[in-house]
Design goal:
This protein starts with a helix and ends with a helix. The protein is α+β, with helices and mostly antiparallel strands. It is built from six helices and three strands. The model has no long low-confidence stretch (mean pLDDT 91). A hairpin with a 4-residue loop joins strand 2 and strand 3. 51% of the residues lie in helices and 17% in strands. It has one domain: Sufe protein. Chain: A. The chain is globular. Bound molecules: zinc ion.
Length: 160
């Protein structure tokens, strides 16, 4: 990866870290509240989800939490990516983001190129989210990046 691209990626991450999107809380119920914790780094995240049962759309999402810059930036980016999306779209994004990260992890560990995971990425536009791949230098930090996505997935599963 060229250093220019890496600089750009770092900017995107810093922007989300300094100006996190969708911070706050929602009333529970009707919203649901899901906590996530990454013991490897001490990152914490709480995801408030408001899903419209008629349209199965994430009409609102709010985030609280604290931790390292990667976990907090990833949480902000996740909230911006799924707000207004259908639950199906959100699940697709979760799968694609986790595939992106595990392909990256395989590369960091010098294993396969992860092409078996590539189908989860097909046809999904991750946009800025790809920036996280550029700043996660060690496999252990990938847990920081995926924390909010796992918490979102749990929130969607527990809904209703
Ligand atoms: Zn972390």
């Amino acid at each position: 990866m060229s250093s220019n691209l890496e600089d750009l990626y770092r900017e995107v991450i810093l922007d989300h870290y300094r100006s996190p999107r969708n911070r706050g809380e929602l009333e529970v119920p009707p919203a649901t509240k899901t906590d996530g914790f990454n013991p490897l780094c001490g990152d914490e995240v709480t995801v408030y989800l408001q899903v419209d049962p008629e349209t199965d759309t994430i009409v609102d999402i709010k985030i609280q939490g604290q931790g390292c810059s990667i976990s907090q930036a990833s949480t902000s980016m996740m909230s911006a990516a799924v707000k207004g999306q259908s639950v199906d779209e959100a699940r697709k994004l979760i799968r694609a983001f986790k595939a992106l990260m595990s392909i990256h992890e395989h590369k960091l560990e010098g294993e396969s190129d992860g092409s078996d995971l590539a189908s989860d990425l097909e046809g999904v536009r991750l946009g800025d989210l790809e920036a996280l791949q550029g700043v996660v230098k060690f496999p252990v930090r990938i847990k920081c990046a995926t924390l909010s996505w796992n918490t979102l997935a749990q929130g969607l599963d527990e809904r209703g």
